[in-house]
Each structure stands twice: as structure tokens, then as C-alpha cells.
Amino acid sequence: MKRKNIIYALTLSVMAVTGCKRDSFLDLNPDDAFSDPTFFKNESDLKLYCNGFYSTLPVMDNNSDNNSDNMVPRSKDPFLSGQYIVPIVKDDDSGEWSWKNERSVNYFLARYQRAQTGDEVKNKYAAEARFFRALYFWQKVKRYGDVPWFSTDLNENSPELNLPRTPHKQVMDSVLADLNFAVANLPVPGSAEKGRLHKYAAAALKARICLWEGTYRKYHNLGDDQPMIREAANAAQLVITGGGYDLYSTGHPTTDYYNLFIQEELQGNKEAIMPKRFIKDVFMHNLTRQLGEGNTGFSKSFVRSFLCTDGLPASLSPSYKGDDSIQAEITNRDPRFGQLIATPGFVFQVDASGNKDIITLPRIGTSVTSTGYQRVKGRSSSLEQWNANQSTLDLFIFRYAEVLLVYAEAKAELNECDQSVIDQTISRLRARVGMPAMQIAALRKDPESDFPGLPVLLDEIRRERRIELAAEGFRFDDLLRWNAGKLIEDPESILGMKLRPEVKAQYPNQGQVKDIVLDANGYIRVYPDINNRIWNEKMYLYPIPTQELTLNPRLLPQNKGW
């Protein structure tokens, strides 16, 4: 039972809720707790310091994919709607040019050797720190492109305080070195303490980062893309062949995918490379309640991407029934449709007496969905999970399905993706939900593809990634690395379901739907004042806060277009 892990949970709750607050890039006063010269004296000190990094591990939340073509929040995303302005000052809370985490890692790496313990132990915690440094600098590169790389501790006389920006690729080569050290020096899961980083978690992060970097280099014409893509493939293969992981399945293809994301215990789940665990009355979250009042929804663009059950795109399949109603739209479609999106018959909530609130019509005109395509991935119908800040559903930090997708895409980018690779990856994901296996020889190019110039195999791998990882926060990063920001301009990326008059008439409360704005074809317009968003080339990077450019002119020039 979870209560057997109470000590671990208390440690985790301290990490995630209070953390170890770090100083900014220019504020060089270290935390008093760690500035004592007697600190870093033993393994306990190393562990305590590294605990502070764990709360920064990324997990799925209510806003995941809101900044993409997958979902449409009721309030416009400022960046994607052209309302974002260059910040004047950095903001540590929002991540605007904040370097507190990077500086904190380097502070540790300059001192951990003091500990009176063996090299294997010291290297393990150095590997944890370098794992996080790789994560932090990758996040900076994604946001700003060229950024200063510094790997030493800073003081008031450090020349690094006025460093120029290091070229993108050079920073990422250093990130790769940190990842390689982490993979080599972290223990395997059986030897690692529960809840701490291990070899295969590091390999999963390496696979994610190297695929992003390699494909970013390729599609932005930066060169040297193949070595990074090779690193991604090798890291994914290490997890596949050595980690002992598998896809979660109970043999119920119409529910297994949905149930994967509403589990109270992911420890021991073979798909969980690394979960974030929650325990009642100790460490809880609010995701289920947020998803029930999310004011967002999947886009028409996303919904069109579901294959039909014959394995063909809707544009090619004779079994496609159209979208005049959500009942028609889900008919003969990939079963993940009904496990990602609330459709008629979905149990929205069960009260304390066991009474079920069952979806009969899409709940448009309410706070649960902006588009009619209500997200239910990660949302339990349990009233207990609905209570504010009382959810104990575990969340994924790294899951095996992502690694399979990385491997398939990387091998395709290397021109090494044959049927055996697909059988090991894409077809296994499809088998879980009862979809037919992908057969490379039988693939047909979707005439409505988002990537008309892309080889059909890569196109279909990207489709699978979009569906399988939906609402987990990957889509915007994918658009960046594929140089595909223009997909944000697709009008369907901000449209919802079709609301025909005969469907509208079925709503008992006509006030709920009377103010819904539709386009000329009857689709819900979430933003009545615009027909589509505009993507500018400058949006592949964010601007540096202007005050930072004043403080350090060597950071100039500002990112192009800003």
C-alpha cells in the first residue's frame, strides 16, 4: 500500500511543494543552508541538495498542448495570438531568462567532491545534477536559441557574468555530454532508491532531447543533424532492450489507454519509466478538478488526425461517417478518440451515493470545454479525485510509449526504419487499442496531410505521435523542431466541433448553446474575432528581456524580429 512509502512521500512532498529556492543568475548569495563550509560532508548532504531539483521534472498538466494546434483554450494564448511583448525584466517564476536552476547545479558540482564517501556514490549524485543541468540548458535553448553556457560556480568576480551567447549547437553538445555522464553513472532501477533518477530515466531524457535537437538542426538547416538523431535512436534502443519496460494493457482496447492515466499507483506499472507519485493527505494535486473546469478543448485539426479503424486516414477511408455529430465522428475511428475525448456514454462523475453523471451531449457552453471536444485524458470520474487539491492519481515523468515513438521517428530520419522497427514500436501502440498494425508497404499518403512534402512513413509516425502523446505537452516542441509553426495558422486549429441545428435542438437548456458562434460551415468558433492565427518566423524563439541586454550588451543582438 502507498502508506508504506510514507517516508518517501514526505521527502517528495518537501521537494515538490517547498523545494530549495535558488538565487538568480546575477544574485550570487547562496542559500544559507548550503553555504556553511561543513555542508557536503557526506552522502546525506549530497542527497538533500539534489532533492531540490526534483520538483522541476516536467509532468502533464491542465495546460499541456494549449499552446499548439492540438487544443484551444477559451482565452487566447498571448504568444500564439500576437499579443506577446518583449519583457523588460526577467521573471524567475515564469522562467523569463532565469538562471537560478543552472547556477544551483553548478554550485553543487563545485562542492560535491568534499563528501566523505566513495566515488561511485559521489558520481551518482553528480549524475543527478548533470541530468538536471542538461534539462535546464535544453529548455533555455528551446526558448532562446543561442544562450550563455557556463559550467562553473559563479561569484561576483566571475567573467561568466558577462558572457556572450554560446552558439546553439555548442550548448547542445555540452548538454549531450551531461546526458552521457548521467546515463553512465546513474544506477539501474533495481539499485536506485524509489523515486530517484536511474539509468533508464536518463536514457529516456537523452532520447527526447537528442531527437528534438537532431530534427531541429535538420529542418532549420543547421547541419550536423544525423549524429544527434543517431544518439536519440541509440538512447531509445537502450531503454527498449535493457529496461524491461512494456506497454500497459489488460486486454481491453476500448479502455486501457484511458485507464493508464487515472491510476493511483504507477510504481510497478511497466509503462512507467519514471512516475511522479502522490499519496493521500501527504502530497496531492488538483489536475482532475482542473480538467473538469478546464475551459479548453481539442481542436478540429487534432480530431481530424484520428485514423479510421481500417488504418486509413478519414480522407481515404470508406468507413468514415463524417462529422455532422460527435456520434458519427467517433464511429469507426481509432479507439483513442473516445479515451481522449468525452463522447456520449462517458461517465463524467460518480457522486458519493454512486449516482453517475453520464455525458449525453458535448458540454459546450460550459467551463468543461471550449470546443465540444472535451479532454478526459487524466481525468477520473471519482468524486474523491475531483475535490480541490485532493487528487492522488500518479503522473508520468517518462513513459515507455514516448520512447517507442522516439525510436521509430529517429530510425525513419536515419532511413533505417524497416517493418521490424514498426512492428516493435508503432504497431504495438496500435495493438493496445485494437487498431490494425502499420504495414509500410500498404501506406497511402493522406491527401489532407499537414506535411504534404514528407515521405508517407515519417508522416504517419508523426500522426501516431500526435495521437498517442496528446495533451502531454509535446506538440509545441514538435512544431518547433519540425519547422512547422505555420500549422498554427490553420483555421481548424482554433475551431471546435460542428454544431448542426438538429444537434443544437437536442440541448434541454437552450440558453447553454444560444450564444455559441459558428463559422460558415457550422463549426464552433472559439475566438469569434479572428478566423485564424498568424505565425511569424521570429516565433521560433522568444526574446531576451530588454533589461538583460542592457546589463550585458554582449548578449546582443536580440533574437531576430523582436
N-to-C order of helices and strands: HHHHHHHHHEHHHHEEHEHHHHHEHEH
Structural class: mainly alpha
Shape: globular
Quantity of strands, as a count? 6
Low-confidence stretches: 1-29
The helix count comes to: 21
In what range is the share of β-strand residues? under 5%
Determine the mean pLDDT.
Answer: 92
Assign a percent range to the helix content.
25-40%
Distance between the termini: 53 Å
Task: State Rg.
Answer: 24 Å
Strand count, sense and closure of the main sheet?
A: 2 strands, antiparallel
Please list the strands of the largest sheet in the order they lie side by side: 1-4
Domain RagB/SusD: 289-562
Protein name: RagB/SusD family nutrient uptake outer membrane protein
Family: Belongs to the SusD family.
Subcellular location: Cell outer membrane
